[in-house]
Design a protein that fits this description.
By secondary structure, the chain is mostly helical. It has one domain (2-145). The chain is built from 4 helices and no strands. It has helices at 2-37, 40-72, 84-110, 119-145. The longest helix is centred in the N-terminal third of the chain and has 36 residues, at 2-37. The radius of gyration is 17 Å and the shape is elongated. The model has no long low-confidence stretch (mean pLDDT 95).
């Protein structure tokens, strides 16, 4: 069980590194360049390469995160907010829901029509998702720092 826990935690942390790091690069380097140049292709090129590792990283985070949360508390207690752990789990689930909502909207509405004119709308998706990614890391650290 200890080896499974360690493996899940390492996979979770590696996936978080890919997801959060990729979004920080996107928000601070790629997006400003695309906005300044008015070139949607800059985002499209990044997206095509990043999706190959970003989406699997997110899926690994979700799978390992759910399992690690189950080890912290039984599923029935995740949202009852009676314990510090349930607070952290509920925050992470909320961040996941927000991330999914922004991702689905971007994938279905913005990315298919991405152009210089829609770059600002895409930016208003990238910035919050990047913030959510950083908050995921901070909240996750809370489990080890005694916040939960």
């Amino acid at each position: 069980m200890v080896a499974m826990y360690a493996t899940a935690l390492v996979l979770h942390l590696l996936a978080a590194t890919v997801w959060t790091g990729g979004h920080l690069v996107l928000a601070t380097c790629v997006l400003p360049r695309a906005l300044a140049a008015g070139e949607a292709q800059i985002l499209k090129s990044f997206e095509q390469g990043y999706e190959r590792i970003g989406i699997p990283a997110l899926l690994i985070q979700v799978a390992t995160g759910l399992w690690l949360a189950h080890l912290q508390l039984p599923l029935a207690q995740w949202l009852d907010l009676a314990t510090p752990q349930s607070h952290l789990i509920a925050i992470k689930l909320g961040l996941l829901a927000l991330t999914a909502a922004f991702a689905v909207d971007a994938r279905l509405r913005l990315i298919p029509k991405l152009s210089a004119a829609t770059l600002p709308s895409m930016a208003w998706h990238i910035w919050p998702v990047t913030l959510f990614a950083v908050l995921f890391v901070l909240v996750g650290a809370g489990f080890r720092l005694g916040w939960g």
